[in-house]
Amino acid sequence: MAITDWPEAERPRERLLNDGAQSLSDAELLAIFLRVGVRGKSAVDLARELMLEFGSLNGLFFASRQACTQVKGLGDAKYAQLQAVLEMSRRALAEEMQARDALSSPTAVRDYLRLKLAGLPHEVFLAVFLDAQNRVLEAEELFRGTLTQTSVYPREVVKRALARNAAGVILAHNHPSGVAEPSQADRWLTDQLKAALALVDVKVLDHFVVAGTNSLSFAERGLL
Asked: pTM here?
């Protein structure tokens, strides 16, 4: 049955307009994005199949172009739209981070880092450089590695902090394994970076480990 044949109170778009986007499931939100289904399947049916295929919205957003376009009902146009939605979300969160004291809006920082790092198939290390009022100067990817490790060089981090005239920095990296727990190497690296940056009066304010939809804050764990 086509969605247009459903009772109006059950249609995802009408429910969103009446009750807000938060009232819809992931599949229903995806169905609104898809707009139409395929032969024999409504947009909601197709969205549910996609959620099963990719495991989650994150799984779909971070899937490769090839993986997406192999699914009936998705193609280059829909893949491009998905990537545009993801990038707009990143930029909106970056604007929110930059508009205020980063420490007074930790949710925006955490959400931005999750959108930036979650779902990547390789490790990435980035830094959010802050001014003396903890306002964001720039978020910059510094190093990229493999599935299990990234080589991070404290000297290069110090050089980038000085180039940005930063007073503080929030560090972050992802764990493609899906486990948001810091390894002993992560703790050792954080200590090394704190010591190196302290020599040029740059304070490490936090270090986030992102794994899928989960993230861990060194500051909240008392690890800094």
From this structure: 0.68
